[in-house]
Amino acid sequence: MSLAARREFTVADLRPYDTRSAWRWIVAHLLRYKFRLFGGFGLDLVSMTLYTTAPLFIGRAAEVITQGQGVEALIYPALMVFACLGGDGVFALASRVALENLAQRLEVDARQELYASLLGKSQTYHNRQRVGDLMARATDDVRNLNPMVSPALIFVYETVLGIVIPLIYIGAIRLELLIAPLLFIAAYIMAVKGYTATLEPVMRSQREAYGKLNAGLEETISGIEIVKASAQEAYERGKFRDHADLYRRFFVAQGKIEGRYLPLLLFAVAFGATFLHAVLLFRAGVLSVASVIAVMGLMNTLRYPTFISLFSFSMIQMGVSSAERILKVIREETEMDENAGGHAATVRGEIAFEDVSFGHEGKGYGIEHVSFRVEPGQTVAIVGQTGSGKSTLAQLVNRVYDVDEGHILIDGVDAREWDMNALRSQIGKIEQDVFLFSRSVADNIAFGAPDSTQAQIERAAHEAQAHDFIMSFKEGYQTMIGERGVTLSGGQRQRIALARAFLSNPRILILDDSTSAIDSATEDEIQKAIQRARQGRTTLLITHRLSQIRWADHIIVLDQGHVVAGGSHEDLLRKSPQYRRIFARYEVSLPPLEEERMG
């Protein structure tokens, strides 16, 4: 399987699209709705034909007037003009409805595809991204696809029809009258080609500048507490002003290019040349007044497509530049695959690390040649100084990352051979930095088990010692939590996270310093809850709290990414200098090291 085809999450009914280029991708999306696409353009063809036919009957009316015929003779051309323009309005309306609907569907489908792609990317990929830039792609860039179809693509289509149909009619009146219009078309094509070539890099840079602007804004707002604590508001304001100014300069550059748009000048020259040619033919007696009026009416219809192409090509170029930014995300290679259809079973809880090494991208190894075994139902504490690789080790168990070397076996099966959803759904993890969504308290607790009843949610909250403070809120379990849980204290966030883990009832429970923000009085009650929660399931406990480490069945000591010792609390106090250093701050009686006794 190619890297680009890998996904941690896929949507079963998500259609595959051609992503080899922006235009192929856009056309593939549009062809999904062939009836609306071809129906809309077909209706527009009828509309433009009727609109362009009207000048012919206006010329006929002029001929009736110049020949001194009665009013009765004007009825037919007048009715035909009315029919042509009225029909133009009806068919144009139907065309706009179909194509506007198509544009909206393109935007929705593209946004869904991009979002599914983001969910399918690995954690390593997301670690490299700026959230604000991804948000710009998922919102503004996707939004630009909509006007690219309606009205821009419609305008381009009408530009072609608005040029071709009048030329056919002019040629039917007098073939040599096509000389000036055809020269205009040749010059027009060359001018538009140069216009789009000049505009394309500006549009691409404009979209990149917008992404940078949005990314900087998101980072500042997310880190507003640090900004205020460091009194750096002025610096951040200056940085935002620089990004906004860069974005503005690209808009100015776009305006200058559009201001030099030549086709309107070329059209004026062609219009005058055609009129001169028509007058000369009239004086030569080969063209009637009615034909001169009809020809000039037909030439005048060319002005609209010439004028509107100024905006249509800009919007199309904007849409293509946005599509390229969207495709850059969709095509991005991801290192992991969900392995749908892989091994799926009820996890018993046996974990085995076999000579495992892993390093974060560009930062060397986080853990190296680690080997140990955890039996089902066993509680294993993993301890070590800061930066020793404890959290990295825990992230490998549920495949947040994949190992670089060695194997991690879950119930004797390599973690990479498991169906990722089957594996992750049976592993619960609570971290020190708890993430809560901007949803209700109940929704946050039930995040891993969305079908849970209110009674089950409350029971989990009771077990995590969270029920009392939740009920102190005015709206109880329906209280909305601020983004990332900023409206709650650290201890409250961690207790809600504990309730979420209890409710999902995982077979393997990973507690990564999960009680660090809880006061000692609350901790006593939560310890009892954790004791109940770990019964019958495998628990990996990452902590520095002696009270928790003591009731682990086995303790593993990490130092600079290596396992340097393992055993019970009492054994390690006697054998491991690294373990003793961890607890030097506690007022406990430390026995002499074995080598000291032997000495």
Keywords:
six-stranded mixed beta sheet; Rossmann fold; alpha/beta; elongated; single chain; 10 strands; ABC transporter transmembrane region fold; 9% strand; 599 residues; four-stranded antiparallel beta sheet; 23 helices
- Structural class computed from helices and strand pairing: alpha/beta
Strand order of the largest sheet: 6-7-8-3-9-10
Could you estimate the helical fraction of the residues in percent? 55-70%
Proportion of residues in β-strands: 5-15%
Q: Uncertain segments of ≥5 residues (pLDDT<50)?
A: none
CATH homology-level superfamily of the domain at 20-330: ABC transporter type 1, transmembrane domain
Number of helices: 23
Strand segment tally: 10
Oligomeric assembly: single chain
CATH fold name of the domain at 20-330: ABC transporter transmembrane region fold
Biggest pleated-sheet summary: 6 strands, mixed
What is the rounded distance between the termini? 59 Å
What's the average pLDDT?
Answer: 87
Which CATH C-level class of the domain at 20-330 is it?
Mainly Alpha
Please give the radius of gyration in angstroms: 36 Å
Instruction: Give the CATH architecture of the domain at 20-330.
Output: Up-down Bundle
Q: Which term fits the overall shape?
A: elongated
Structure description:
With 599 residues, the chain is of the alpha/beta class. Among the domains are: 311 residues, ABC transporter type 1, transmembrane domain (ABC transporter transmembrane region fold, Up-down Bundle), CATH 1.20.1560.10; 75 residues, P-loop containing nucleotide triphosphate hydrolases (Rossmann fold, 3-Layer(aba) Sandwich). The chain has 23 helices and ten strands. The protein has a six-stranded mixed beta sheet, sandwiched between helices. A four-stranded antiparallel beta sheet has the order 2-1-4-5, covered by helices on one side. Helix 2 packs parallel to helix 6. The longest helix has 48 residues. The model has no long low-confidence stretch (mean pLDDT 87).
